[in-house]
Design goal:
By secondary structure, the protein is α/β, with parallel strands linked by helices. It contains eight helices and nine strands. Helix 1 runs antiparallel to helix 4 and helix 2 (33-40) packs across helix 3.
Length: 207
């Protein structure tokens, strides 16, 4: 059984994975914790603690073998087990998420989109078709989708979350500017873009 990681450690691991992948693509055989720390502006001691927490170790004074470390992260983070997801909302954000090809490296496959605008229903974003909201419940059950991405106005978010959860969804990636209520056992990850901007703005002001 894997050791339960803290939230901050878990959020850092995909960033480590991205850096290790970049080194692998350049044919670099080893990477050291100090290099990872420098690229992410993280304390080197923290990097070593994070990597130790997932039961991986490198060679003293040489570092981590990039191929082995990449494979270890893929296994630990379950990146090779593809998870299907639906995007709800075909505005600018929903479109951007659907078009982003980088998710596949992390095991996310956005297979369809949903919207209540008749003019958007039926269009295709690459290979992904836009379906009416009325078919959401049916298709969640049909495709056995466990993840939805909410890219809709706040006033619609709770209603869509309710439909998704009742249909069998287990996790919600929420970009709507509102907190949604879900039953115990349902995972919600909130992305507050406005709050992120305020933090960025405050850091600029502090310089």
């Amino acid at each position: 059984m894997q050791k339960k990681l803290s939230g901050p450690t878990l959020r850092r691991l995909p960033r480590y994975y991205r850096i290790v992948c970049e080194h692998c693509e350049r044919g670099e055989e080893y990477i050291r914790s100090c290099e990872i720390a420098c690229k992410l502006d993280v304390d080197e001691t923290q990097v070593r603690k994070d990597i130790s927490a997932i039961n991986y170790s490198g060679k003293p004074k040489i570092g981590f073998n990039t191929g082995e470390f990449k494979a270890h992260l893929e296994n630990y983070l379950d990146l090779l087990n593809t998870k299907k997801a639906f995007v709800i909302g075909v505005g600018n954000l929903g479109l951007a998420l659907a078009k982003y090809n980088g998710f596949s490296k992390y095991g996310l496959d956005i297979v369809a989109l949903f919207d209540n605008d008749p003019q958007k229903v039926g269009i295709k974003i690459g290979t992904k078709e836009v379906f009416p909201i009325s078919r959401l419940s049916e298709m969640i059950k049909q495709e056995q989708v466990k993840i939805i991405v909410l890219a809709i106005p706040g006033e619609e978010a709770q209603k869509m979350a309710n439909i998704a959860v009742e249909s069998g969804v287990k996790a919600i990636w929420n970009f709507a500017p509102v907190n949604i209520e879900v039953p115990e056992g349902i995972i919600v990850s909130n992305q507050d873009l406005a709050a992120d901007f305020v933090v960025l703005s405050m850091k600029i002001a502090e310089q």
